[in-house]
Amino acid sequence: MRRLIAIIIISISLIILATFEVVAVKKINTNLLKDVIYLEEITKQNEDNIVNISNEITQIKDNWDNIEPTLCLMFNHKDLSTVTDTLALIQAYVFNNDYDNAVAQVHLLKEYAEKNEHVMGFNLQNLL
Fold it and tell me: Of 1, 34, 84, 87, which is most buried with the most CB atoms under 10 A?
């Protein structure tokens, strides 16, 4: 009887944890994609002087830096480091007013954000 209760408690805990992971990852991916789309828009609007968006890129990078340690508990850091590295490059290009490279990195970040759903999302391959 005690084993059955222990198995039920462990199963319920795992279901709750898995549900939390799915919801949290979906929210993080959605927020990242919104930030990237916003970054793409303001980058195009400030083509002449992209230094004007340095505060926005710093805020987006800081948000990601706060979320990344939590995600590293669930996912391989190697999969998440591409987003971190790309944000750092965008920030450097913005500070140096290098529009062409900044836009290229923003488009690359958008692709990463869209593909993160496959890497971090709920699918059979991630379960195995």
Answer: 87
